[in-house]
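queue> pop job 88
queue> type: inverse folding (structure -> sequence)
queue> payload:
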């Protein structure tokens, strides 16, 4: 028996956050309104609303205060340092820097906030891993031209990138231009991922879908990402850029060849397409056929394709929460409550929000993507959304420990398989607002925040049992699980 390979020296251990889900201070120091700021709270069964006119007397908007990282970042970063993080994933809220997205000059106060956050990370030798776009489109760009459906959005985004790359050229090395860019292959991506609103649909989950606009928006993000890579490397050739894919791994429900074909189609469209564009620099053959078969068309210029070819990313990153089964049988096709739908896998358990828990699927996925792209990989989100019980300042979250332990075990097996995995930033460093439901009670953090779904609580922070456990894991470089 050969000895199992260890996590490499210098492996990145940390956690992830996103500005709109943790910062709060939604209208402070010149910040403008983002598309997340007009989303009300909901629950597993009650969808979140989009209210273009904010009415705080009628609705609760969880992003407005969130967990107030804006004022508590020092305490939060110190706690992450205590766990031993050497990397910290965060996003920069576009509307702090360009409040409406269309200004020519950035908002200095917004930049100063991130100066301070980066200084704090540096104090503890934590590498920032910065997502440039994480559901923080300026709302004004929806009003003006329906967000990313229009090419104009690219120019504003690139102006934002230029400010960040110049200001943080010696501070930030790792950049992710777009979080979960592939979500635009489904109608769920319209609002959060592109600020697209067709008609007056109030519920973000039930939007009128126009695939022409949606895939055009995705294309505009591909081109913008590639242009950002090319611009960034001129400003600092050491910058490293990554794709970020919401990887919902799919299995055929049965060995019926119809299930196999459907599963392959689903995998190519949802999981592979965006990575193929961003890592390989090509529009793959299967997507051209998909567009033809579905009557989807939008403008792709020769210049766009040239930029995409040149502006490829350096690393592959993805979120991994669950897997799904695909079935050609209509009866079983949609029985699971997962975000992307799909059939229930009888071998797996699920979270209270019906996300199927599949640690071995992570090893499978790591091998799948490394074989496809052969570039360094980071798992930039993974975690369990669960209700925690707070007892005398203690939170015994052994279910979260179990979930993360099992996924780390599988990452180690994937490393042993030969996968070049370089980092792990589970979701989330700290409790924050859930994207899909707007709840606080769907908790992911190692750090508990005293706040409930209605916005009540002291916002005090507490170390969960998983905090102490993860500290031990990091301290032993993944050996003590
Ligand atoms: C990812 C997003 O899809 O999943 C995060 O990048 C999100 O922003 C996370 O919070 C978990 O999803 P949810 O809906 O439980 O918050």
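queue> result:
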């Amino acid at each position: 028996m050969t000895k199992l390979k260890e996590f490499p020296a210098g492996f990145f251990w940390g956690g992830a956050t996103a500005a709109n889900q943790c910062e709060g201070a939604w209208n402070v120091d010149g910040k403008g309104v983002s598309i997340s700021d007009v989303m009300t709270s909901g629950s597993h069964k009650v969808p979140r609303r989009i209210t273009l006119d904010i009415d705080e007397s009628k609705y609760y908007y969880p992003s407005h205060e969130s967990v107030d990282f804006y004022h508590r970042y020092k305490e939060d970063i110190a706690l992450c340092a205590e766990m031993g993080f050497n990397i910290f994933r965060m996003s920069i809220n576009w509307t702090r820097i360009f409040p409406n997205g269309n200004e020519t000059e950035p908002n200095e106060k917004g930049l100063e906030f991130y100066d301070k956050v980066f200084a704090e990370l540096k104090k503890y030798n934590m590498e920032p891993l910065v997502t440039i776009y994480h559901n923080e489109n300026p709302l004004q760009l929806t009003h003006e031209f329906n967000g990313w459906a229009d090419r104009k959005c690219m120019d504003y985004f690139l102006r934002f990138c230029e400010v960040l790359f110049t200001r943080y050229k010696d501070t930030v090395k790792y950049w992710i231009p777009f979080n979960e860019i592939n979500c635009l292959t489904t109608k769920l991506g319209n609002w959060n991922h592109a600020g697209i609103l067709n008609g007056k649909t109030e519920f973000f989950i039930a939007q009128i879908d126009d695939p022409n606009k949606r895939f055009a928006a995705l294309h505009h993000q591909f081109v913008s990402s590639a242009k950002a890579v090319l611009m960034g490397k001129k400003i600092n050739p050491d910058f490293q850029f990554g794709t970020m894919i919401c990887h919902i791994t799919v299995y055929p429900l049965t060995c019926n060849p119809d299930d196999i074909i459907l599963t392959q189609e689903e995998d190519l469209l949802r999981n592979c397409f965006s990575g193929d564009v961003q890592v390989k620099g090509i529009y793959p053959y299967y997507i051209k056929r998909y567009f033809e078969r579905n009557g989807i068309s939008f403008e792709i210029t020769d210049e766009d394709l040239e930029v995409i070819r040149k502006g490829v990313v350096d690393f592959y990153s993805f979120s991994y929460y669950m897997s799904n089964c695909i079935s050609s049988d209509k009866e079983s096709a949609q029985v699971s409550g997962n975000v992307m739908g799909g059939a229930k896998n009888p071998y797996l358990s699920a979270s209270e929000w019906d996300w199927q828990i599949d640690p071995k699927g992570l090893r499978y996925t790591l091998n799948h993507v490394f074989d496809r792209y052969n570039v360094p990989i980071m798992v930039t989100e993974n975690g369990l959304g669960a209700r925690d019980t707070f007892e005398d300042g203690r939170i015994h979250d052994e279910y979260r420990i179990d979930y993360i332990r099992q996924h780390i075990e599988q990452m180690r097996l994937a490393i042993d398989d030969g996968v070049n995995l370089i980092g792990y930033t589970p979701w989330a460093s700290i409790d924050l607002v859930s994207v899909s439901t707007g709840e606080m009670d769907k908790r992911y953090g190692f750090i508990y925040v005293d706040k409930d779904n209605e916005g009540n609580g002291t916002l005090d922070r507490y170390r969960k049992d998983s905090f102490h456990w993860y500290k031990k894991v990091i301290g032993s470089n993944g050996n003590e699980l």
